[in-house]
Fold:
Amino acid sequence: MKKKSLNNKKLFSIIAKLLEVSSGKISLKTSSENLDEYDSLGVLNLVTYFEKKSKIKKLKYDIKDFSSVKNIIKFLEKNSIKI
Structure:
């Protein structure tokens, strides 16, 4: 269980950096609905980062995959993308 929370902590830190907010503002409940900085530009930053991070040449995603932290985690697990 500790390993998973460390991964979440790292993911939260990455998301915070990409959205230009403090990591304390990021949690499993964070979404474009409840954080102003989680706007279209923020989503684009997230998509670009995880496209580069994946080893899949043509990563298939729906913009909804990046609409919340929970969805990002599901997307990363589904596509076996490690952070």
In short: The chain is about 50% helix and 0% strand. The domain at 2-78 is CATH 1.10.1200.10 (Non-ribosomal Peptide Synthetase Peptidyl Carrier Protein; Chain A). The radius of gyration is 12 Å. Residues 52 and 59 are 9 Å apart (CA to CA).
